[in-house]
Design brief:
The chain has strands at 4-7, 10-13, 18-24, 33-39, 45-51, 58-60, 68-73, 78-83, 92-99, 106-107, 111-116. Strands 2, 4, 5, 6, 9, 10 and 11 form a 7-stranded mixed β-sheet that branches. A 4-stranded antiparallel β-sheet has the order 1-3-8-7, with no helix packed on it. The model has no long low-confidence stretch (mean pLDDT 95). The radius of gyration is 13 Å and the shape is globular. The protein starts with a strand and ends with a strand. The relative contact order is 0.32. It has 117 residues and is mainly beta.
């Protein structure tokens, strides 16, 4: 089972940017579709963005569309989430996840993103 390690979280002011990274241990990284999810305090986990195995297709939640960009570096077994124009409502723990089928099977431990107003 692939192991995922997120990094890049932190505390930023509204309007600024952060870049999250997720490193995968599996050398067959390119066989996984990858996604980012988040869980805000007191809320359910929600989908943020996903990217297909080859990186040719991306999907975003409406709340982050045009602000966030998901990308992957297959040679480095890494997926990124560039987050621009951050808002206080983006505050959450962000999780990276991997899928070989219809569901996400592997999850990272999460990284905290806090956006101050």
């Amino acid at each position: 089972q692939v192991q995922l390690v997120e990094s890049g979280g932190g505390l930023v002011q509204a309007g600024n940017s952060l870049r999250l990274s997720c490193a995968a241990s599996d050398p067959t990284f390119s066989s996984y579709a990858m996604g980012w999810f988040r869980r805000a305090p007191g809320k359910e986990r929600e989908f943020v963005a996903s990217i297909s195995r080859g990186g040719g297709s991306t999907y975003y939640a409406d709340s982050v569309k045009d602000r966030f960009t998901i990308s992957r570096e297959i040679t480095k077994n890494t997926v990124h989430l560039q987050m621009n124009r951050l808002k206080p409502e983006d505050t959450a723990v962000y999780y990276c996840a991997a899928s070989r089928g219809e569901s996400y099977d592997c999850w990272g431990q999460g990284t905290q993103v806090t956006v101050s107003s």
